[in-house]
Amino acid sequence: MFAASAFKEAPYAFFNLAVFLGFMGLYIPFYYITSYGVRVWHEWTFAGPLFDLGYYRYLLLIGLILSVLGIMMTSIASKYWEIMLAQAVCLGLGALFVGFLTLYVPFYYISSYGITKIGMSSQLGFYLVPILNAGSVFGRLAPNYFADKIGPLNILIPFTSFCMILAFAWMGIFNTPGIIVFAVLYGMTSGTYRHIAAQQMRGTALQGAKIEPYHQHVPIVEGKEPVEDFEGNYVFADIKESHTSRAMTSRYYKDMMDAAVSDVVIIGAGSAGLTCAYTLAKRRPDLRITILEASVAPGGGAWLGGQLQSAMVIRKPAHNLLEEIGVPFDDEGAYVVVKHAALFTSTIMSKLLALPNVKLFNATCVEDLIVKKDSTGMQRINGVVTNYTLVSMAHGLQSCMDPQTITAPVICSFAGHDGPFGAFTVKRLESAGLVKLGDMHPMDMNKSESLIVNNTREIFPGAIVGGMELSELDGHPRMGASFGGMLGSGQKAALEAIKVFDRLEVEDGEVICERT
Predict the structure, then answer these.
(1) Cis ω on the peptide bond leading into residue 11 (within 30° of 0)?
(2) Residue 417 annotated as binding?
(3) Residues bearing 2,3-didehydroalanine (Cys) (predicted)?
(4) Does residue 194 have a known ligand-binding role?
(5) How far is CA 274 from CA 48, 59, 269, 328, in A?
(6) 367 a known binding residue?
């Protein structure tokens, strides 16, 4: 027997091997049995003998009533024992009466049907089951690969539907070519069902973070019922302290797992970074976008206007974004004024974070870049190295805490002007001898904003830079307390990111080469 610690320390390949061996032990006897027509009796089962005695209508009626009732009762369960009663007792009893008729009847009946109904020779008729099993090779391999990409249920539902359609189509088959084609097609579709369970077992060590959020959808109230009464009788539902911890950590680490391979990483969630993320996510909902913000509060300088004064000035035509997201403003001719900068920040964040393809990690800074050569030998960005901001700020006060990485073929950096975490990407590329800084020049608002928007670009393969960080690279004038350049630069960066990503050949987040 293995000790528990042995499983914790075992390499990931060990679990894959265990699943494979268990799969072989389970399914090889099954295919041997079905290929040769051996009948297997289960002494603990009473549904099988009752079915053979002709009581299949009663079995189906009882089984379907119990199964549907169990599902319906689960939807209104609010306590743990109610869930157990609905799922374990009601649904479990229903499963005893209902077999997988659509799935397994062809395996046991197709040979008899071919011989007695179609008039096939016994030699060819008995080969229908091996033909069916041979057709299932497709169902055992290809769908499992795609299930890992889009989810097992998204594969299982259409293929089981095909099984149902073929089962009805079987009634119209009365010749040898038709029954052979049916055997092949049914094997292809039914093979998916029998093997998708093994695909779901892969990587079970990582499933806890994925499963926990779904558990939270069922409220379990052990004590007082919630009451919304503002006359002195307001009562919250009883929970345990561990519920809040699990609710937060499970979602956070699931987000980290999902973001470990991203399509675009955005560094800095100031006005330019948020605008870039919003524009990119709306235009390309297929892209996985991860935003990293070193501060606890995303928004950068956009939470306040100039010199801690709350109004936000935006020069035209950047005000078009305000109209798109629904932020009210006062029109002053050449520029508009939002009554409080936080109104813009909170509005765009609420719309951005509601999008399913966006992840935001605040209090998380970028400590380094990942630079690799692609298959053509070109050096290019391949992701970022991250750490908690508080850890990065206190490296000299504590022992080393190793960082994490996010693999991505494209980054958009809006780390601001020079500072503790400012202009990070361009400074890191300069230290590696890959770019040369021009240093930001004194303020000239009329020149600066147009220069920033027009020159937002890919400065190094895979690295797009905008906002004030670009001024540090190109030596543009300082911009001042007008945010039009930030919004325009963010929009321009999103368009550039789409162009860069679409010309890349990417596999699991890593760039293979540029498409010709």
Answers:
(1) no
(2) yes
(3) 400
(4) no
(5) 61, 59, 5, 18
(6) no
- 415 annotated ligand-binding residue: no
CA angle, 172 as apex, 167 and 178 as ends, to 5°? Answer: 85
Residue 147 annotated as lining a ligand binding site? no
366 is in an annotated binding site: yes
List average pLDDT for each run of 10 residues in the chain, which is 516 residues long: 42 52 50 45 56 78 86 84 85 74 73 86 84 83 79 82 86 89 88 67 47 43 74 89 93 94 96 96 96 89 70 94 96 94 93 95 93 94 92 72 90 82 84 89 89 96 94 88 93 98 93 88
Q: Contact, 90 vs 70, CB < 8 A?
A: yes
From 458, 497, 146, select the one nearest 287 (Cα to Cα): 497
Residue 333 marked as a ligand binder:
no
Non-local CB neighbours of 17 within 8 Å, separated by 6+ positions: none
201 annotated to bind ligand: no
Pair 108, 99: CB distance under 8 Å: no
* 140 is an annotated ligand-binding site residue: no
The predicted structure's pLDDT at residue 8? 44
Q: What is the structure's pLDDT at 420?
A: 57
Determine if residue 228 is labeled as part of a ligand binding site: no
- Each residue of 49-71: b (16+ CB within 10 Å) or e? eebeeeeeeebeebbeebbeebe
Sign for the pseudo-dihedral over CA of 477, 481, 482, 483:
positive
- CA distances 160 to 157, 261, 373, 499, Å, are 5, 31, 44, 40
The C-alpha atoms of residue 11 and residue 42 are separated, in whole angstroms, by: 37
Q: Which residue has the tokens 């889009």?
A: 150
Q: Is 486 annotated as a binding residue?
A: no
Count CA atoms closer than 13 A to 87's CA, side-chain side: 11
Quote the DSSP letter at residue 476.
P
pTM, to two decimals = 0.59
